[in-house]
TrEMBL record:
Keywords tagged on the record: FAD, Flavoprotein, Membrane, Transmembrane, Transmembrane helix
SUPFAM superfamilies: FAD/NAD(P)-binding domain (SSF51905), HI0933 insert domain-like (SSF160996)
UniProt domain RsdA/BaiN/AoA(So)-like Rossmann fold-like: residue ranges: 5-414
This protein's name: Rossmann fold flavoprotein
Domain RsdA/BaiN/AoA(So)-like insert residues, every copy: 194-361
Bilayer-crossing regions: 6-32
CC cofactor: FAD
NCBIfam families reported in the protein's UniProt record: aminoacetone oxidase family FAD-binding enzyme (TIGR00275)
InterPro entries: BaiN-like, BaiN-like_dom_sf, FAD/NAD-bd_sf, RsdA/BaiN/AoA(So)-like_dom, RsdA/BaiN/AoA(So)_Rossmann
Length: 427
């Protein structure tokens, strides 16, 4: 029976890169995916444009990977964001930089990133099988032996790389199949949770949809824990939806909402929005008073819309107990100061996150404590490797997750390849 050098299970960014990198070393590689196409999640990533990596220094990259970012120092020492940029440019996919260092293909087509990776896999000594679902991973004593397919067929290999992703957006094939195989090998799988996911709120102004579609640009969002302490603040854009909050900063805060809910055993979590993060309350007060003074006989509701999103005004007036038909001359000082305070810390109670299936990323996964960071090899079974989102590593949106998938995939493939092509030289 044929024994492959390396079997890669999963043809997302991590598995494609692992197959390419093992193939580059001359290893005899088999790449299996249960879907009818490779890279299905990659093809819809970044709104179909694929935010493939981020051009910021490594220290900054690590800060943007709140789920075990420090583990990534080692894989990044072998293959990092700049290597990803060169890799794609060598394959004819030029990348461009957008805001906050985000890198996209110049042609804005995620599909071209998928196709380039497949071309690279095909350049190596690799065989690809789609519509081939792996049912189990076979182990013999302290070694991996191969895989068992849903069809009942067994395939043998010297190394197996598990690159089956997490549990998010399961229609792309990521249905969490790998966790049980990891546990069977003796690995610990940390609690799975949704991250980079919209937030649900039962606030009346969300439920009545009065803010639906409102986007606040360059604001900050802060998560407050059950003891009243600030947990995290993110700056950027916030979007009100029919069920709660979305947009980059809501996604970034989502994992902290989940954790505060869990740790405090509470249902609702307080968030505050600073609508003018670069201004102190006193400066806002002065600026608004000057604006009102220019038309002292006009109702404040007809003037403040010049500086504050109009749809927010009725809610702010109500919360500050400030009558909207007041004029500059009749402005109650205390209520106006309260109004200004609300601009600096507008409270929104959220009541959870959307589901793990709807999340951009799965938090938790195969514990990194039992993975060699310089090779991505399992510390439990020889010949077994992990890469990508199956691991307990997760980044914010901004290209960090695909970066982790490509970096860990490259390292896993390289070392699985080295294990068979030059077994004495795997470090
Ligand atoms: C809508 C969306 C947009 C995103 N946009 C971005 C972005 O722009 N930038 C960014 O950095 N991150 C983005 N992400 C996150 C990023 O796409 C993932 O983190 C990344 O795809 C994970 O790669 P992976 O290779 O580990 O797993 P996946 O991409 O999930 O691939 C896993 C593969 O394994 C296969 N598989 C699963 N089980 C089996 C089995 N039993 N047998 C055989 N094959 C199996 C699946 O079919 C699938 O092809 C986005 C995520 C979503 C959902």
């Amino acid at each position: 029976m044929k024994v492959y050098d390396v079997i890669v299970v999963g043809g997302g960014p991590s598995g494609l890169m692992a197959a390419a990198s093992a193939g580059m070393l001359g290893a005899n590689v088999l790449l299996l995916d249960k879907g009818n196409k490779l890279g299905r999640k990659l093809a819809i990533s970044g709104g179909g444009r694929c935010n493939v990596t981020n051009r910021i220094p490594i220290e900054e990259m690590i800060k943007n990977i709140p789920g075990n970012g420090r583990f990534m120092y080692s894989p990044f020492a072998t293959f990092n964001n700049e290597d990803i940029i060169s890799f794609f440019e060598q394959l004819g996919i030029a990348l461009k930089e957008e805001d906050r260092g985000r890198m996209f293909p110049v042609n804005n087509k995620a599909k071209s990133v998928v196709d380039a990776l497949i071309r690279k896999v095909n350049e190596g000594n690799a065989e690809i099988k789609v519509n081939t679902s792996v049912k189990d991973v076979l182990y013999k004593e302290d070694r991996v032996e191969g895989v068992l397919l849903e069809s009942g067929e067994q395939l043998l290999a010297k190394s197996v790389i598990l690159a089956v992703g997490g549990k998010s957006v399961p229609h792309t094939g990521s249905t969490g199949d790998g966790y049980a195989w990891a546990e069977k090998a003796g690995h610990h799988v940390t609690e799975l949770f949704p991250t980079e996911v919209p937030l649900i709120s039962e606030e009346p102004f969300i439920q009545d949809r009065s803010l639906q579609g409102l986007a606040l640009r360059e604001v900050t969002l802060t998560v407050i824990n059950h003891k009243g302490k600030k947990v995290i603040t993110h700056d950027g854009d916030l979007l009100f939806t029919h069920f709660g909050l979305s947009g980059p900063i809501a996604l970034r805060c989502s994992q902290f909402v989940y954790k505060v809910q869990k740790q405090g055993d509470v249902n609702d979590v307080l968030l505050t929005v600073d609508i003018f993060p670069s201004l102190a309350a006193a400066d806002i007060e002065q600026e608004l008073l000057e604006l009102l003074k220019q038309q002292p006989h006009k109702m404040i509701k007809n003037i403040l819309g010049q500086r504050i999103p109009e749809r927010l005004l009725p809610i702010l007036f109500e919360k500050a107990k400030l009558a909207e038909d007041r004029t500059f001359h009749e402005l109650p000082k205390k209520a106006f100061q309260q109004f200004v305070q609300l601009l600096k810390a507008f409270p929104i109670r959220v009541h959870g996150t959307r589901s793990i299936e709807e999340a951009f990323v799965t938090g938790g996964g195969v514990s990194v404590k039992e993975i060699q960071p310089n090779t991505m090899a399992s510390k439990k079974k020889q010949g077994l490797y992990f890469c990508g989102e199956i691991l307990d590593i997760h980044g914010y949106t901004g290209g960090y997750n695909i970066t982790c998938a490509l970096s860990t995939g490259f390292v896993a493939g390289r070392h699985a390849g080295l294990e068979v092509t030059s077994p004495l030289n795997t470090n």
